[in-house]
Amino acid sequence: MVTSRKLDTFERPSTHPRFLLKPLLCLWLVWLAVSVSAQDRPNLIVIYTDDHGWPDIGAVGIYDDLKTPHIDALAASGVRMTNGYVTAPQCVPSRAGLLSGRSQNRFGLESNAETTEGFDSQITIADRLKKAGYATGQIGKWHLGPNEKITDHGFDDVYSKNANRPCYANYTLEGETIEMQMVDDGLYHLDACSQAALTFIERHAESPFFLYLAYRAPHVPLDAPKKYLDRFPGEMPDRRRQALAMISAMDDGIGAIVTDLKRRGLTEKTLIFLIGDNGAPLKIHKDDAPGGGPGWDGSLNEPMNGEKGMLSEGGIRVPFLVSMPGKIPAGQVYDEPVWSLDVAATANALAGQAEDDALDGVNLIPYLSGEKKGAPHEVLTWRWISQAAIRQGNWKLLRGGDREYLYDIVADPEEKHNLRSANPDVAETLRARLVRWTNELQSPGLATGPMAETWNDYFDHYLEGKTAPPSKSKFETKSNAETQGWITRNGSASVKEGALVVVQDPANARQRPFVVQSGLSLSGPLIGKVRLRSPQGGAAGFAWRLDGQKDFSKEQTVIFEAKASEEWQEIETPIPAEGQVIHLRLLLPSGTTSIKRITLQSSNGKPGKFWDFSK
Questions:
Q1: Which of 53, 79, 60 lies closest to 336 in space, CA to CA?
Q2: Under a CB-based contact definition with an 8 Å cutoff, are residues 610 and 515 in contact?
Q3: Whose C-alpha in 3, 83, 393, 410 is 20 to 30 A from the C-alpha of 261?
Q4: What is the pLDDT of residues 197-228, one digit of tens each?
């Protein structure tokens, strides 16, 4: 509460400049001190990749099909962490831990299925740095609540693009400030994120800034455009090609950002982290399913064991780079365990903020600059639903339900040799420490739920060495030659008795099947003809995508009715496409549909195309 008192006549302040000069001078000096202090504080850029396997950057030196020259140069300019971890093997909790600097289990965000209410009450890196005078920006994938509410978490500038569609933003790629709204830039989402990062730096180059750049790559849907795919010719799984292309697109953006910082003279005063949010999803079999939807994302974890959804190394050990040429010696390969929670503690220290015991990470700069020796952490701990793990020195204890494994993780990073029986005292000590930690969490205990069938299968295969169960891929894997290039979605297809027989996936009864043909080049408008048989009958139709369009549009669909009949029926419908059709879907009724022939005839006399399965 502010109080005041009446001034006596002799206490009336003078308005003579001589009397005003001293307080004004003091205010100016205070402002100057704060301004200079802020200018001296380093910038921070955190680049967070998505479902990105530990070895999938060229600097690791395991796979030679990668093209990541700029990421490799970033590693060479600073430190590559060989034992860099995240706090969860899944997107939402991993991101909540990174941005809060606290184990997300402490505030109840255990998995993607949990509400983000606990995160909403946390102080983020952006909150901390904004308080210290930083400009703050979020770009790309958010995944921690409504995108239009990102500014509630300390971020000033927002460009939350993670797909080839409009996104929430409060500034344009040209640098104009706008009210938070949906914007459509028409760019490939990874290119748009890179451009948004360059724009953010342009807007705030004169003041300290914090940029959180969260590329949605190589996470599915795999959607790299031709210019990136063409960088990877030759025989390989299509999904691997897509992942390589998306990683290459990120690499281009990272190269542009580093070049821009150098041009502005900001290289030595900018700390850059590059970290993956969790390991790659392999689905055990690495099915090269056509299309870019759910399944293996084309990234690789080997030689690390396991995958996304596991607290084995393949799920939580990730690409982890740190660069700050003005502070951290270049060319380092650092083997001590670190994790994503260290980002917030490091940022807090660099911004000159007081240490906060609520943070679960440590300031890495003294260790990476050589000021401090030894390991930054005595112990690291994890819990994810039915799994829990602890790493202390060379030892790692991993639990999954009632199963328990003990590894010398330095001698055996691939987690192939369970040493629990030979070292019961070590296992008991680590388990007791893990129990103490889990009892501090919002939901205490070694687990918050049972082992699901999927995780039991994963543990059986990766950690027990058992034969993998059959693939559960929902995608059509028949030869494209057999189906004449048509790929089935929400079902399966095969050619039988002179017809393409499409059977709806019984486990996906709400999603009607359809078949897709890509790589077309047909001038619209068209006339579509299909000869089919549908015992159930129902709505069917054509949907199309034009050259230059990133996605299918609801407006570019025509619907027709297929009669319920065991007899063959010929259906003809206009396809009012205005431009060059490159991608077509034939939407089908529920159940089973047999197709003898599909014809696309140009209505303006130009060549069309047909597929006849009766021959």
A1: 79
A2: no
A3: 83
A4: 999 999 999 999 999 999 999 999 999 999 99
